[in-house]
Amino acid sequence: MSLADLFTVVAVSAGAVFFLAGTVGLLRFPDALTRLHALTKADNLGLGLVVLGLLPRVDGVLGGLKLVAIWLLALLAGAAVSQLIARAARSPGPRG
Amino acid sequence: MTEALNVGLALVILALALWTVVARDTFAAVVGFVAYGLLLTLVWVQLRGIDVALTEAALGSGLTGALLIRAAARLRKTESAARAERPGVLTRIVALLAAGCVTAALAVAVLALPDPAPTLAPETADNLAATGVGNPITAVLLAFRAMDTMLEAIVVLFALVGVWSLAPDRAWGGRPGPLQRADPDGILAYLARALPPVGLVVGVYIFWIGADLPGGKFQGATILAAMWLLAVMAGLADAPPVSRTWLRLALVGGPVVFIAVGVAGAAYAGAFLAYPDGLAKPLIKVIEWALLPSLAVTLALILAGVPERTST
A72: distance to nearest CA of chain B, Å? Predict the structure, then answer.
């Protein structure tokens, strides 16, 4: 096992741990805001570590940039949607 | 290892499908359906059907999911009343028998398939060169089975007509959907400014690459429609009144070009939708370029919803 392989295994495993912890938090935390807090850890750190771990395995610079772009887009979407959900959860207005 | 992953994926999908069917709450069932579609995307990736995976993610899960969420929100007011009505024993027995018969017929049909399953893949591969395109899926969709694709493009137009036909008389020809009042400095407005440049590039890229690699007009058009809807939802743009002439022209433009190419094929190449020798690829490009904007506008307007506001 080369150093790059070891790096991939460690980083992707660490990412999987964050996904697992985020899912446990999503299921166990008591209200919407804390559940969002758990979810962002899975999205941001978990996916980030998985992408980081896969970077040594891509064919070229373009493939690596695409992977990083996927992570950045997930960050953008995750942060925006979390804010929207949090605002909807806090506002007492009608739902639906 | 991959085997275990596939079996796990199949089990989760079956469980999710069952849950979607038995969930009593409409919104919960819709959420289950969207998750089911995303997992199905993974199955298509595993089967090397990247084109189908893209379509499932964009249309099957994304667009259909958004439509169903809107429908669930509309049904919310009447849902508790509808749930209180329990069908009679006879109705439920008939429904059970009907569902059981359909399942049994499907099972018989699948089990009766010859082994190896009949396939046209070798014929497609042999004749791929005649079309000039590199992606066999595109060759099937726009040359060998172009009629199906033409009817699909027309069907989504009919779906839009169906949505519009729900409009109340006073709003006929008006702007679809409610007026969106989002905070102009809020996060949604920020996302609607930051994401569309990326989304437009990705959408056009997926369309552009479709001739030779997985991708195509339906998937690209869905992404373009989503970007436009994001701007509408954030209050940065408003949906145009559906009576606008340019809008109607954009809607019918793609199908009209498709039919015109088909009729020209009948005149010059001997059959409806046949391409003359050597002209297959340019004609496919013409059809694709004409369909992309039409599909994007049609899908966006289906999602934008029923005309609710008068055009002034």
Answer: 11
